[in-house]
Write a structure and sequence with these properties.
Keywords: DNA-binding, Phosphoprotein, Transcription, Transcription regulation. The protein is α/β, with parallel strands linked by helices and about 220 residues long. The protein starts with 5 loop residues before the first strand and ends with a helix. The protein is about 50% helix and about 15% strand. Helix 5 links the parallel strand 5 and strand 6. It is globular.
Length: about 220
Amino acid sequence: MINRHLRVVLAEDSVILRDGMVELLGARGCEVVATAGTAPELLAEVAEHRPDVAVVDIRMPPTHTDEGIRAAVEIRARTAEVGILVFSQHVETAWATRLLADGAAGIGYLLKERVARTSEFVDALHRVADGGTVLDPEVVTHLMRGGQRRRVVDTLTPRERDVLELMAQGHSNRSIAALLVVSERAVEKHVAAVFTKFGLRATDTDNRRVKAVLNYLAETKG
């Protein structure tokens, strides 16, 4: 999977950072098919090139507020097959919630200062391109705690909440067990409890792990 050739559109208003990222990604086997310095340019380049992944900064010209992530939401609505990796210094809770509202598959949100190695970033690109979800733990914390109406989540035990946050980051039960230093069976019980409290019944098609996170975000969205 890691060796898959990825086509990337890169949105970053800092020319120096943008050029550096193009060089780094190229050295890692990714093809940056276009770059953009503004949100309208990003939308145009994605529409033209239909990349595997669009890398998006949140704050872009002209107002440097939320143009980038607003464009990401629009890309998601227009071309759902294009993966979105938000790469920013900031956590924008309201727009991030909207970006995730229709499903977390193919969505990533990483904070620039917390990515220690280029390999981590490239791995995240591949995971997003393959339909996975990559959320920085700090982003998850903001999303989980940002609302004022924490109804179901307030019923979770501290351990169930820990498990839910790790689920939101894309970890498997085995990975969660290793991180929390508990048995995989214990994690399964916590996950089942989370599903029960959110009223998520087993079906053949629903991804309850994603829905457990998204239901909470929808609950606190307003």
